[in-house]
Amino acid sequence: MVSPRVPDLDSLALLLEIAVSGSLGRAAARHGLSQPAVSARLRTMEALVGVPLVERSPRGSSLTAAGVLVAGWAREVLSAAEVLDAGITSLRADQDQHLRVAASMTVAEHLLPRWLVRLAADRPQTAVSLQAMNSTRVEQAVLGDEADLGFVEGPDVGGGLDSRVVARDRLVVVVAPGHPWTRRRGVDAAELAATRLVHREPTSGTRTALEAALAAHGPLAAPLLELSTSTAVRSATAAGAGPAVLSRLAVQDDLDHGRLLPVPVRGADLTRLLRAVWPAARRLSPPAEALLAIATAAARADR
């Protein structure tokens, strides 16, 4: 705890200026203050210290013996403050020049590239590192200070995190051409829940979003296959392994080219929210704030 007898840094700097210049007026001019303001600060400083620090005479102002001692100590304090200021400036510069992003597979592959292009145009000095992982791991990375900003696709956000919706997505049931479901008008939610599917891993945002959407129809059937990437799920489904549920963002190209076919679902809402996440107790760095603003603006434009 700082002693109540210690003057502030500006007052200490004024004392050193008086010692060098020998004049309250010149010290005032050097610091952009009026002479009465400098006199008032000096009186306050002397009251804090408890002894006179400056002697005034027609020839100017000089330090008392006590003032010389205080000025010597003040030089060390001000030098340490300069070191602290330089360190803080370095930290702020590092924050402005580096941004660590962790994102779920869907966001990393289909949304972040255009957001990062915009960020690079707005902040060319910022270097960005991106890690793609499942949503659970994203939250862990953000809370563990491995990432400055995260993007997740699950139905809920874990404790200790603030979040903001940055996009809306829809899960789509897809099958290979020739699958029996292509000859039907769709499947009921209960049938979908009871069908063995080609799944992402349990901690993926896609899997947890599907579980939440079908929760009223019982637990999901055991996976037919369990794969760690959307690309692997798409390939297995297109090869005829079985139905899958994936983000429309991930399968749009396959749907456009007929490699996969969509199957309507009755009795379940498969829309979901994609969110940015960051620690609730931490202020975002300027680059993270900028990327969050870009993602939020893109979400408004897509509505």
What about the largest sheet? 7 strands, mixed
- The proportion of residues in beta strands is 15-25%
Number of separate strands: 13
- Computed structural class: alpha/beta
- Give the name of the CATH architecture of the largest domain: 3-Layer(aba) Sandwich
Low-confidence stretches: none
- What is the highest CATH level, the class of the largest domain? Alpha Beta
Summarize the structure in short:
The protein is of the alpha/beta class and 303 residues long. It is built from 12 helices and 13 strands. The strands form 4 sheets. Strands 3, 4, 5, 6, 10, 11 and 13 form a 7-stranded mixed β-sheet that branches. A two-stranded antiparallel sheet has the order 1-2. Strands 7-12 form a two-stranded parallel ribbon.
What does this structure look like?
- There is one protein chain.
- The chain is 48% helix and 21% strand.
- It is an alpha/beta fold.
- The protein has two domains: 9-95, Orthogonal Bundle (Arc Repressor Mutant, subunit A); 104-302, D-Maltodextrin-Binding Protein, domain 2 (3-Layer(aba) Sandwich).
- Helix 1 (9-21) packs across helix 3, helix 2 (24-30) crosses helix 3 and helix 6 crosses helix 12.
- The mean pLDDT is 89.
- It comes from Microlunatus capsulatus.
